[in-house]
Amino acid sequence: MDTSPSTRPAALIDWHSMFMGVALLASARSKDHRTRNGACIVTPDNRIIGVGYNGLPRGCDDQDPIYWADDDNDPYHSRHSYVVHAEINATLNCVVLPLTDATIYTTQFPCPRCAQAIIQAGMRKVIYLREKVHHASANAAAAKMFGASGVSCEALEAVDPGALEWSTRLATFIASGNSSDEDV
Ligand SMILES: [Zn+2]
User: Fold this and answer.
1) What separation in Å is there between the alpha carbon of 15 and the centre of ligand 1?
2) Which of 75, 91, 99, 126 is close enough to 153 for a disulfide, judged by CB 3.0 to 4.6 Å?
C-alpha cells in the first residue's frame, strides 16, 4: 500500500477547522428560531471534552411558546429566562473534569453570563466565529472579565484565516438546510 504523503486526502482539515466545525454542527441541533449557536470544549492536547448548543433545559417542552417569548420586561414571558446558552451547555455536558486550561470554540462571541462560567470553570482560551455588532456593550463586558482573569478571547479570523474560510462555508451549508422542523 502506498503511504507516501502524496496519497493523503486532499481536504485534510486543521484542528481549528475541526473544532469550529463541531461547534457549528452542534448549532444545527438548536431549535431556537432566532439564533442557533454551538460550542466545543477542547483540552490542550486536542481532545474534545464537551459539546453544546443553545436550547431549553431537559423536560421543557419545545412546543410551549412561553419559552420562546420575547417580552424582555417580563421574565416569565422572556426567552432569556429559559434558553441555556451553548457555552453553558457545553460546560455542563463535559465528559471529564477539570476544564483547567481548556479552549472553548464558540459560534458566537460569549455573552457575559457564559464568560463568567468559562472563567470559573478554569478554561483559558476562547475562539469565536462571529460577533454581533448590536451586542457590543455586552461583548465589552465579557471581554473585560476575560481580560481581568487572563482568559484569551480571539476571533477565529485572527487565529487561523484558513479555518475561518472553511467554517464559513460549513456555516453557510448549515444555514441553507431546512431540517429543523423534522426533529427526532
Ligand atoms: Zn451566553
Assistant:
1) 24
2) 126
Tell me if residue 87 is catalytic: yes
**Ligand 1 centre and the CA of 178: distance in Å?**
25
Q: Ligand 1 center to residue 84 CA distance, Å?
A: 8
CA 58 to ligand 1 centroid distance, Å: 18
Task: Answer yes or no: are the C-beta atoms of 164 and 154 closer than 8 Å.
Answer: no
Cα separations in angstroms, 34 against 31, 37, 87, 126, 151: 9, 10, 17, 23, 28
Predicted pLDDT at 184? 37
Query: What is the pLDDT at residue 6?
Result: 61
CB within 5 A of ion ligand 1: which residues?
A: 85, 111, 114
CA distance 96 to 41: 11
pTM of the model: 0.85
pLDDT in tens, 22-67: 999 999 999 998 999 999 999 999 999 999 999 999 889 999 999 9
